[in-house]
Structure to design on (491 residues):
């Protein structure tokens, strides 16, 4: 598996160097001349110099041990990686169990370190050297430690010398670096190749879902002027129930109880918020109140929902292949879902003409359906729905469209990430009726922000307006009217 002899034809070593090889996939023979030409065009003009003002900022969070990762260590790491790539037979590696892969790589590291690396290293440095070699060959290189950290929610890579993370709602510069833009591109291509995608100069943008479900987006030169740009929204393995929002100060106890009842009595709910505000996490929490006997269909661009009910049918869109064909959109999946006898349909995010079929489903017996949408206020969410319909091929008068919206949607829940990094439910609005051509709404709950506290946490008060919603009759039908009225006590 690790020897000087290479396989005939295109070598696995060269495939890995170009970023197309990964464990568990067929490794095609590369075209050396085209690869070198692409590499030159991508990186000659994109390596940042030391005088780049963006690189003068000091890291705020450290993951590297500077006592271990000395200049000698870095030189040894480079030599070890090159030696392993020369010897690695990836065709054999891909047939092995994960534990065996790691053990064989450790053995190969021991051989290379003993015979070819004549740099004095401590035992701790050698152990770290082998761990990093495994991450580079089998994992995600320098960001492997970030992928393993459950407190890191987002990873943002701005070229090979800058890696930011979001932790507890704050964006932080780390000391993690890639050795070069080529190293970073290799990691990008390893990730996208796992899901059968590609990224190169002719197709320099890619969206993918990582093996653990995390969202992955990358854009490379020539569109990215200063090096490869990567954004990873990590997949949360533990579902966050509504009661945890109270503990984190993201909503009041009355709001939590109210939303639990709304989920149970099958109201149609839209979760509105900006990018990174926690819309999908809240949608997950709301789904926790769905009856176990209901048949639920979920439709997403990147599968993130973690419904716990036994009768859940999960579907995910498919992008076009390399030839530009084979795309399956959310609208196609929504239409198909209507033929699958669902009790509820849950859409990860409304972002296109599927909004028409979502509104139709909500109006035709699929009560309790839910979705998220990008908007800054509940009123903006309704306007965005109108705009999405307007951009589609379906032409409706404004009056007819607003009647559809007013009849379909019961509740808009607004969530926001605020200045202190905390995510809060800032408003819950009921869609009351259509008055002429105006959709009438009323606020049931809200959050009134105060000044920033000395501890860096925004102060404020959650309040209830005391307004009585029109869906009280539906709450009574499910035996929940008294509970709902108790939540609606004015504060």
């Amino acid at each position: 598996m690790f020897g000087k002899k290479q396989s005939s034809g295109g070598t696995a070593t060269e495939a890995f160097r170009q970023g197309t090889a990964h464990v568990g996939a067929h490794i095609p023979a590369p075209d050396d001349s085209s690869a070198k030409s692409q590499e030159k065009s991508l990186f000659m003009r994109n390596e940042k110099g030391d005088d780049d003002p963006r690189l003068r900022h000091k890291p705020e969070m450290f993951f590297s041990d500077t006592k271990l990762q000395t200049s000698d260590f870095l030189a040894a790491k480079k030599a070890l990686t090159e030696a392993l790539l020369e010897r690695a037979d990836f065709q054999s590696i891909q047939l092995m169990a994960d534990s065996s892969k790691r053990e064989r790589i450790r053995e190969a590291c021991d051989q290379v370190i003993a015979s070819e690396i004549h740099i004095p290293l401590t035992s701790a440095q050698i152990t770290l050297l082998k761990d990093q070699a495994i991450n580079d060959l089998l994992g995600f290189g320098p960001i492997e430690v970030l992928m393993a950290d459950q407190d890191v929610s987002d990873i943002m890579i701005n070229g090979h010398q800058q890696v930011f993370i979001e932790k507890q709602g704050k964006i932080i510069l780390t000391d993690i670096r890639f050795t070069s833009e080529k190293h970073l591109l290799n990691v990008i291509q390893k990730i996208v190749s796992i899901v059968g995608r590609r990224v190169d100069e002719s197709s320099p943008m890619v969206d993918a879902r990582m093996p653990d479900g995390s969202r992955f987006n990358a854009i490379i030169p020539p569109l990215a002027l200063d090096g490869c740009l990567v954004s990873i929204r990590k997949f949360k393995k533990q579902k966050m129930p509504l009661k945890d929002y109270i503990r984190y100060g993201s909503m009041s106890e009355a709001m939590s109880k109210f939303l639990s009842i709304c989920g149970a009595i099958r109201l149609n709910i839209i979760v509105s918020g900006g990018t990174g505000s926690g819309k999908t996490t809240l949608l997950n929490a709301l789904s926790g109140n769905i009856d176990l006997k209901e048949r639920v269909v979920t439709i997403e661009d990147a599968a993130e929902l973690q419904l716990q009910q036994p009768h859940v049918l999960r579907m995910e869109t498919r992008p076009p292949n390399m030839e530009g064909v084979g795309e399956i959109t959310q609208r196609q999946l929504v239409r198909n879902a209507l033929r699958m006898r669902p009790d509820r349909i849950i859409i990860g995010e409304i972002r296109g003409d599927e909004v028409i079929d979502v509104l139709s489903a909500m109006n035709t017996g699929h009560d309790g359906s839910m979705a998220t949408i990008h908007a800054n206020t509940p009123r903006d969410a309704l306007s965005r729905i109108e705009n999405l319909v307007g951009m589609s091929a379906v032409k409706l008068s404004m009056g007819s469209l607003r009647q559809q919206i007013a009849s379909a949607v019961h509740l808009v829940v607004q969530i926001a990430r605020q200045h202190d990094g905390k995510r809060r439910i800032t408003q819950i609005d009921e869609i009351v009726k259509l008055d002429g051509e105006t959709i009438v709404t009323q606020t049931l709950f809200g959050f009134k922000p105060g000044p920033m506290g000395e501890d860096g946490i925004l102060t404020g008060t959650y309040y209830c307006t005391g307004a009585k919603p029109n869906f009280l009759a539906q709450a009574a039908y499910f035996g929940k009217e008294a509970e709902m009225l108790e939540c609606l006590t004015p504060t």
In short: Residues 444 and 465 are 5 Å apart (CA to CA).
